[in-house]
Amino acid sequence: xxxxxxxxxxxxxxxxxxxxxxxxxxxxxxxxxxxxxxxxxxxxxxxxxxxxxxxxxxxxxxxxxxxxxxxxxxxxxxxxxxxxxxxxxxxxxxxxxxxxxxxxxxxxxxxxxxxxxxxxxxxxxxxxxxxxxxxxxxxxxxxxxxxxxxxxxxxxxxxxxxxxxxxxxxxxxxxxxxxxxxxxxxxxxxxxxxxxxxxxxxxxxxxxxxxxxxxxxxxxxxxxxxxxxxxxxxxxxxxxxxxxxxxxxxxxxxxxxxxxxxxxxxxxxxxxxxxxxxxxxxxxxxxxxxxxxxxxxxxxxxxxxxxxxxxxxxxxxxxxxxxxxxxxxxxxxxxxxxxxxxxxxxxxxxxxxxxxxxxxxxxxxxxxxxxxxxxxxxxxxxxxxxxxxxxxxxx
Length: 395
Hints:
Elements: H1 6-18, H2 24-43, H3 48-58, H4 63-78, H5 80-101, H6 107-132, H7 139-161, H8 166-190, H9 198-228, H10 239-263, H11 270-285, H12 294-315, H13 321-341, H14 352-368, H15 373-388
């Protein structure tokens, strides 16, 4: 059977884009469908030009735009439960922090409910996605990442409530997360058909909403921290939100990295693979918390900032000078922090003005990186991490 050349598929893609298809997963599906139809016609004896002309004539005017509108409406309806639970999680988390500030009873319970709503949102969106896209490969890999995340949510819930078994759950959550990240990374580097990957397909749908969720959490906490920088570290009550942001935005960063590597085979090499594995290993191990020594956690954070910054620059290189500077500044800041905390550099008080400048630069970077999703996710993790550094221990 005759197959379309790369240039012919590119011509088909350009036509579909001109017809109004902007939603990437739908564009890829329609590209495969139309290309297959043209190849069937060519198999019957037509040239590409003849088959392509017939195909274009068979597509009614504005038909593809209508398909996209209907598809997006269907997606929105299917994931309305997930969206509602996300909003509820936000409300409960801010409610819990407010109750803590005002010393009202029930603060821990509200935080516990916010974690439950967050888990319900994550799980409902994932299960719906798997059910409605059974033709896509990778349901087990998606579920393994979800399982690791849910285990860590449960583990940190146990820590907040001071229930027994928290350490065991943390170990289990970290172990499952590490294995799931490793398996998915290996799959990405060995895969030649990114359009069939369920994880990438679902993530592309949810990515804007995920990003908004963490920005809504981060902005008020960052403002509060800037206002309260002069007060003692243990007086700040937003740490639990920052930890949630760090983990969620970190997973977002690695999911975006996988998607970018799927789209550009040329970037898949031993160096990129090593940096990716080392960065997510350092990132996830930090969530062992007090099971690791403070010194080890500091070194892991430093190494993550170095590997992730290099990875970001190589797979999602920003053209903006501010973003380029921040990708250099972040690992320098966290490296300097480790050297100071471990007494390799003489201790020197960091001024209030310096902290405000750094926080403003990182915040500006988050809001100007709209065209570089991986860069933005990395900066969200870095900003939240910098804020945590002035609030004491993680949990």
